[in-house]
Every structure is written in structure tokens, then in C-alpha cells.
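Run log // design_07
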């Protein structure tokens, strides 16, 4: 894959991802704001990968055989 890393904006998807992270790792969050908890407690921000191009590699079809995946 080729792409860029961008800081994730505080939108529904980011808030949902933070909530899933907090739930998965059983963090004791005060209140319902998982994103705020992560940012305050760990001084961390969330980032996302934005793909520009993706290739599927299949060495069974020949060494180095790759097919571009349409995004």
C-alpha cells in the first residue's frame, strides 16, 4: 500500500474507534468520552492511514506478481 498518514478529525468514526479501543482494553474511563480520555491520559492523538494505491501480491502466480486493487 502507498498513502499518507493524517491526524484523525473528531468525527463520529474517530469517537467510535476510541470507544472501541477503550472497551477492548478495559480502560477505566471516567464519563463516556473515550477519545477525550485517551488524549488527556496518554497525551495521544489518533491518526489514520489514507491509501493512494493498493496492490495485491500473489507469488503463487509467479514471484513478484501483483495486481492493482481499485479503491
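design_07 sequence
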Amino acid at each position: 500500500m502507498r498513502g499518507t498518514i493524517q491526524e484523525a478529525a473528531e468525527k463520529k468514526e474517530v469517537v467510535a474507534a476510541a470507544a472501541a479501543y477503550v472497551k477492548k482494553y478495559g480502560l477505566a474511563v471516567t464519563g463516556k468520552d473515550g477519545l477525550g480520555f485517551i488524549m488527556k491520559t496518554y497525551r495521544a492523538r489518533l491518526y489514520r492511514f489514507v491509501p493512494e494505491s493498493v496492490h495485491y501480491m500473489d507469488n503463487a502466480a509467479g514471484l513478484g506478481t501483483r495486481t492493482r486493487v481499485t479503491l
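The beta strands are 2-7, 47-57, 66-69.
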